[in-house]
Amino acid sequence: MIEGLLIVLGPMFFGYLIKTTNRKWLNRINKAVMALLYLILLIMGLSLGQMDDLAVQLPIIALSAFTFISLILGLNLLALLIYDKISPRPLSHHSEQMPSRLRLMLDSLLMSSMVLLGFILGLFSKGHLNIPLNSSTYVLLALIFLIGIQLRNNGIALREVLFNKRGIYTAILVTASALLGGVLAAIILDLPISQGLAIASGIGWYSLSSVMINDAWGPVFGSIAFFNDLSREILSLFLVPFFMQQHRSTAVGITGATALDCTLPVIQRSGGMQVVPLAISYGFIINILVPILLVFFINL
């Protein structure tokens, strides 16, 4: 757990140490962040397409994953929308012109297309093209490093990032509603409650949840966890721009653990740098909770 947090936060802190007033370099960094995001999504699709025996249990996996993601994400959205209604924080005016919602949705479609493209390439290249070990991790390190530079040079205070009260409340609501969704999904699918809670505990961290649950209960449950958490990430590409303007906690909260890495550029692009402290604070807490919850419920 500590190693995983260091992998994410280390490059960010190093990037935060770099200060520059060169707008040309900052524009290049912004473009590099988007390029690295597309590359991560392509690698994610490739990995999915090259999974072994994907078609054998696909109907069971698909139905179970759909049940979990529908209930978990549905309850997440309900809890977060109520919170945004009780404590509204709409986006303030930006000095930079924000893209239209249609443009942001088209960007999300493009990012989802990268996953689909990677999946198709993975299917046809299986056995012929091997993805370099930890390749997505190295890309992620570079991405987080550049985001750290963006934070330092957009007037974001480190204290505001690490001690964001709204981020804490958002994390509590998402975790509680996700676990409730896991219990309901387990009841509907006639699974042990502990398995439902464990699958719900991934909250978008598919690379961790799928491995731990696979080791505990086999590849079928590992695959259910994988698709459940992967679906959150893919759906976030569309939902973040849709909710961001008036419901910032909802837009950030639905991304789960990926708020600290893969979907952070999507959050930043949709809401500007003013939303980044909330996203990082929320993502930081979720990334601490997920391994603890997984270990606890797997060993019940």
Q: If you had to describe this structure to a student in words, what would you say it looks like?
A:
- The protein is mainly α and 300 residues long.
- It has one domain.
- It is built from 13 helices and no strands.
- The protein has helices spanning 2-16, 23-49, 58-86, 101-125, 135-152, 158-162, 165-189, 193-200, 206-217, 219-244, 248-253, 264-271, 276-298.
- The longest helix has 29 residues, at 58-86.
- The mean pLDDT is 83.
Can I get a quick summary?
The protein has 300 residues and is an all-alpha fold.
Task: Please give a handful of descriptors for the protein shown.
globular, 300 residues
Instruction: Give the biggest beta sheet.
Output: none
Strand content: under 5%
Q: Could you give the order of the helices and strands?
A: HHHHHHHHHHHHH
| Spatial shape | globular
Spans where pLDDT lies below 50 across 5 or more residues: none
Cα Rg: 19 Å
Alpha-beta classification: mainly alpha
Distance between the termini: 19 Å
Estimate the mean pLDDT confidence: 83
By DSSP, the count of extended strands is 0
Number of domains: 1
Q: In percent, how helical is the residue content?
A: over 70%
Number of helical stretches of at least 4 residues: 13
